[in-house]
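Second attempt. The first submission of Adenylosuccinate synthetase had a stray character pasted in from the spreadsheet, which I only caught after the job came back as garbage. Lesson logged: always re-copy from the clean sequence file. Corrected sequence (684 aa) follows.
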Amino acid sequence: MLVLGDRLPPFIHAPCYTDERLAPECGEMGKHQCLPKRLAICASLVDMFYSRTDANADFVWQTISSEGQRLHDEYKSLDSYGQLAALQAIIIYILLQAQDPETAERNGANALLLIMIELFTCLTESIDWDTCDSTETPDRHHWVLRESLRRIVALLGLVELLFEGLIPPHAAQANPPYKNFRATPLPSQRDLWEARTNRSWRREQKLYLSGRTSHEVLTVGDLLELDNAGCFKNTWNNQHAYSKLPDAATKAYDHLQLPTVFMRTLLTIATRQKGKLTDILAPEAQLCARAAGGHNAGHSIVANGVSYSFHLLPSGLVNPNCRNLIGSAVVAHIPSFFKELEELEKKGLSNVHDRIFISDRVHIDLDLHVAVDGLEEIELGDRKVGTTGRGIGPAYSTKAARSGIRLAEVFNEELFESKLRRLASGYQKRYGDLLKYDVEEEINRFKTYRPKLRKYTVDAIAFMKEAQEKNTKILCEGANALMLDLDWGSYPYVTSSSTGIGGMVTGLALDIRKIGEVIGVVKAYTTRVGSGAFKTEDLGEIGEKFQERGREWGTSTGRRRRCGCLVDLVVVKYTTDVNHYTALNLTKLDVLDTFPTIKIAIAYEDPETGEKLDSYPASLDVLDRAKVIYHEMPGWNQSTTNVKTFEELPKEAQDYILYIENFVGVKIKWVGTGPDREAMITRF
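This time the job returned cleanly.
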């Protein structure tokens, strides 16, 4: 934050920018001597901070804390520009606090957060937003005000990410505010800021905007690349005060159209065993969306003592204030859609018919596809995939062959019938009498469904565009694990859609710049449904023990899941490299309570060369030959069921969690310790 010569940081303005009478004098001096006193003091304190020693660190922080309190005491008497300067100074002090939290806390710096919230609330209530929102080219005075506000909220967004644990102290230290600070929504080019007259300012603005190719905006993705470690773990004791911050930031965002780093949109992508975490996150979501897959996968959610099963519908329906969308890459079985809605309604969920929408671009999973599914498995013989028999594969096959039927086409009765008859005829030629299907019966069923479907059908592009522009909190659900992904899974023993983050983005038309979190959900041990590669499978007593203790059978099919050694970190690391998780949820830790030894797969080795494989292999032949390298850890032999904090866990369980975390390189934010909704540890 140092003021170097006459060059000011982009989020500090000087009065000479708003009063042309001061500009010549400052320009002649070569420095902005008119810099507000509050920011001049701030610059000096920043200089002191970066020059501090162990001997004077307490004094430096006592001085910063005193200055923060002084700003708090006088801010109500200041005009808007004075409040802007005071708020910028406070935010800068908080960013410094990230680099030295212990000393700062010891010397009273915790009050800075409360002061910042109070100042920002006061400022947002006093600003003339209509002037700031004007689309006309502003004069220099209003432009500086607008840009100062933008940059303040940029800093607020950075501070908020610090609180959420996305930036650790050492990352803040490596990127101090004055060093290559890039979180500026609009340019900070010297010529533009320092134009002496309105005329010259407009000329420079026009030249700059015409030649600009991109914004230099610090995004959430950039921040996550710094580190995913937590910070401020014990610094902020006043959680009530912190809860006010997002509302204030959102208020400013609504007016200023800030970059995505400040978005409070929750785009959570849970790709394995997601039910419980989805249940926990759903109450905060305003929109819950399914991106791909069909009614072949499912999970159960217990809310208020009632168990709800979800297969095709998004589980956000449990939240009475949440809208829900079935995205464009889903294949929708319409009879199951209505049946599932009816079951949820019978169990007491309110207004379910008013809170569910379907993209008009989804492909229809016909009963014809269901009939064909089993026949294709018979054809494969010993190489069968082990599908659920729900028609998912055939539905995606007709989609890829460009002969599928979209929901939009259902409303054109003549087109729907002709396409369905053509599909049925093709399958009839292939399977003959083996195909047990009545095309007339399905046509008649859709005569009943057609008028009912209209109220749920939306243009998903417009629907999602509006939601994202309004900063809606969105929870995105994955239907299957990444190892069932059509491109990245253990092919050919996969499902027929993209189950990872790529499928989420395309299936829901997500703006990738607005993705806040990507959460990978992994069991504390390994399971699989259906056929296919399972390198660490245990067919003996241990596998059966996992099945019984973990209740390992599918919600949709009731099939018992295949179980293996404890967590296969080769697979977890591979899925992390594909999906780029920002946090992990480790589930069912309590299932391991009775195991004397914890066995973890950490590498695959080529038995012929003795070399470790770089990653999960694409070739099943290579996978079959590979030898699994295990790491063993002592078990804890005591109950962890319903434990609520990490510190309450046995040391061996803590070590197990930390080992996974360090191996994968992603923080484990949640740990499941039982089937109940409340049995979840939230670490940061």
